[in-house]
Design brief:
Blueprint: H1 2-24, H2 31-56, H3 63-90, H4 95-122
Amino acid sequence: MADEYESAGDYIVNILKFKLRMENAELKFSEKGKEEIRRLHSEVEDYMNMVTKAYEERYFDIITKAHSQGDAITHTVREIRNSHLNRVSTEKIEPLSSVLFIDTINAYRKVKDHILNMAEAMAGEK
């Protein structure tokens, strides 16, 4: 469990580094992109809080809900990626901004994966 929290934390640090890299390059995501990142952040934050609370309360039967909510986050990531690719094809977007956007949503997906691993470990599946 500690290793999974540490790995999730490493990806969260990467997300912050991506944000700082954007600021240092004086780049910004589009308003739509910012809205999508905020929505994804909120979903992953809720997911982590749910699994952490289940661990604290020793509710180890969280796995069904964890799989369901994890699948919803994966769906959100795919939606956001497709939306971004549509923007790239119709708008002028700085290449670095595009790369960092994709890296950011992928990092959130990795955080979700590590949280799911925590839930599976609690359920005795790992």
